[in-house]
Design goal:
With 94 residues, the protein is mainly beta. It has one domain: 10 Kd Chaperonin, Protein Cpn10, Chain O (Roll), CATH 2.30.33. The strands form 3 sheets. The chain has a 6-stranded antiparallel beta sheet. Strand 8 and strand 9 form a beta hairpin. The radius of gyration is 15 Å and the shape is globular. It starts with 7 loop residues before the first strand and ends with a strand.
């Protein structure tokens, strides 16, 4: 079992084929330039600010998020590839 600390997210990449979005053909390589989409598998409790208060997470398990390609720590757990990233690294919730 993976227990996340602070405002960290456990993410699993969503693999997609080429598709049409809003009438525009968007090949897979173009999407990579914008960042990758991930499903949120687990979340930490939130971030503790200077006053000692806990700021709860606004991102929920099951959300689809976009983070830049070079962000996060990749690892394999029980044969599945995951990424751990901070909630502040998330650029959008889809």
């Amino acid at each position: 079992m993976i227990r996340l600390l602070s405002d960290n997210l456990l993410l699993k990449e969503i693999k997609r084929e080429d598709e049409v979005v809003g009438g525009i053909y968007l090949p897979d390589f173009a999407r990579i330039q914008l960042g990758k989409s991930y499903e949120v598998i687990a979340i930490g409790p939130g971030k503790i600010i200077d006053s000692g208060a806990l700021v709860p997470m606004v991102i929920e398990v099951g959300n689809e998020v976009v983070i830049p390609d070079d962000i996060g720590t990749e690892f394999v757990y029980d044969g599945t590839q995951y990424v751990i990233a901070s909630a502040s690294d998330v650029k959008a919730v889809i």
